[in-house]
Amino acid sequence: MTPGSILLALAVTSLWGFSFVVISYALEAFPPILVAFVRVAAAALPVLVLIRPPRVPLGLFLGLSLTLAMLQHIGMFVGMDLGVPGGIASLLVQSQVFFTTALAYVLLKERPVAIQYVGIAIAAGGMIVIALSLPGGGPLIGFLAVLGSAAAWGVSNIIFKLIKAVDLIRLLAWCHLPAVPINFALSYALEGGPRVIDRLISADATHYLAAIFIGLISTSIGYLIWSTLLRRHSATLIAPFSLLIPVFGMTFMATLRGEEFGPLKIVGAALVMLGLALCVVHRRRAVRPLASELTVPEAVIIVRPIQPER
Fold first, then answer.
1. The domain containing residue 157 runs over which residues?
2. Number of structural domains the chain divides into
3. CA 31 to CA 199: how far, in whole Å?
4. DSSP result, the chain
């Protein structure tokens, strides 16, 4: 792996970690679903250039729009708005690894290796510790919302795998387009009706830039860099870099937003990181996927197909 590729991998994982700082700032001016609306509108902007839609099955396209463009980020933003700290959210959302593993086993007949079961168990214990460190009420509901976000990410990973060869940037832009009016309608219905319009009018430019950054820079540019790395190098080389996302996220939130981590949260975070590491970084030799089948961080899941019965 070249020094340039290493720098790119560090750049994109630090970008995704920094995004949690940006999200927390955007939530100061906008309610969570309205942030999701501005984000998808920004993520869909490349459609103005990429006029021709991607050629994918309609059902898979709509499923990706529902999970990646809507539920994943609405769950994340709602969870953080209800009190889940951004650093902890950046860690919890990585549980998408476990949801993807489970779905790949059920739907794609891909069996995890033994060490991944151990990793899942350790990380689950870490999440329980984190949940116990949160006060009841909103933060606990927010914790479940972030896990729901991770589950939606896991589903979208499987959809990406089923779609296989496609222009990723074109697909990302177009799958966000249907979510634009839907997210606005949800925000209008659930977050105050006319007050939503007032929020859009009264918000200053920096809060708009924060939401646009999440959609256009973090989503479009970030995934373009990640998919480029996956096309140049083996997934087994690139995948472990995803473990740096919560490291950057927690570091940026602590230094830039003053987030504090008590002993219980630190223990829980350490267990989750250990579990993720066991799931992603193991010694078993994996077959390198075709470049056309590599998409976004779903490639962190390295599984062994079940051998057909003779």
1. 3-305
2. 1
3. 9
4. --HHHHHHHHHHHHHHHHHHHHHHHHTTTS-HHHHHHHHHHHHTGGGGT--SPP---HHHHHHHIIIIIIIHHHHHHHHHHTT--HHHHHHHGGGHHHHHHHHHHHHS-EEPPHHHHHHHHHHHHHHHHHHHHS-SSHHHHHHHHHHHHHHHHHHHHHHHHHH-SS-HHHHHHHHHTTHHHHHHHHHHHHTTTHHHHHHHHHS-HHHHHHHHIIIIIIIIIHHHHHHHHHHHS-HHHHGGGGGHHHHHHHHHHHHHS-----HHHHHHHHHHHHHHHHHHS-SS--PPPPGGG--SGGGG---EEPPPP-
How many C-beta neighbours within 10 Å does residue 10 have? 13
In a domain, 217, yes or no: yes
Whether residue 224 is contained in a domain is answered as yes
The answer to whether position 20 is within a domain reads yes
Q: Tell me if 178 is assigned to some domain.
A: yes
Q: Cα(137)–Cα(30) distance, rounded to whole angstroms?
A: 21
Q: What is the pLDDT of residues 188-239, one digit of tens each?
A: 999 988 889 988 888 889 999 999 999 989 988 888 888 778 777 766 567 6
pTM score: 0.81
CB 281 within 8 A of CB 115: no
Structure token digits, residue 81: 């708005």
